[in-house]
Amino acid sequence: MIRKLANADKETVLELLNRQPAENLFIIGDIEAYGFDDPVTLWGDFNGDGQLVAVLMRYFNHFIPYAPSLEKLDAEGWGRIINLDGRMRQLSGLDMLVRQVMPYIWQPLKTKQTCCYAQREAALPLNGQGQQKDVRMLFPEEAEKMVRLRASIPAFHALSEDHHLLQRNMEKGISRSFYVEKDDRAISAASTSAETRSAAMIVGVCTLPDYQRQGLATSCLIKILAALRAEHKTACLFYDNPDAGRIYEKLGFQSIGHWIVARYG
């Protein structure tokens, strides 16, 4: 049986999600930040014994399904919920799950990207060699500086960002950024997203084309990893570039699967 979840279900939901905390970082992070209220909506699938076996989350127009195994995933049921809701523009999640749901989506698919999903345990030692002294922490009121940097980089052109939302997430403690500045503008950065009590997703690792291959983004990344390690948080990230993958492996990241981002509308 599928039904909408409420705050009374929080303990049950987190018990299921925390079986794979890295894989469920986005869902856990949004629950910690917003609870079960707008912009977050959650649905749960319960078996005949009343046990929660799968979850679907909507964050604004972004949906993420989760089940611990394919046998417990009602792909058609989740597809029906998404279609009836009518707000979906992005579907993402673990490769094995999203591929099962996609055939039931009515909307035309625009793009689909598959990335490696990796994590770095907080207890691992961190080699800060090459770390730049001019890496700065971004303050919430400077959020527009990060939005302008990403908008200047081709790989981020498909990303539409609102600096007000970024600022709010920074103020809530679910996002932070470190950056390098030159001539009063950010030229390289790395950020976190969906931070929880135990983990954080690293996003937006980037450098303006004219300043690449100087180790600037790696320096920002090391700064973030040091901060997360001090707080005993596991670092997670996506990548689809083999060169980036080799850098992440040197920093202690290990692959834990694949993640699909499918965009619609």
From TrEMBL:
It comes from the Bacteria. Coiled coil: none annotated. Residues 133-265 form the N-acetyltransferase domain. PANTHER family: ACETYLTRANSFERASE, N-ACETYLTRANSFERASE. This is GNAT family acetyltransferase.
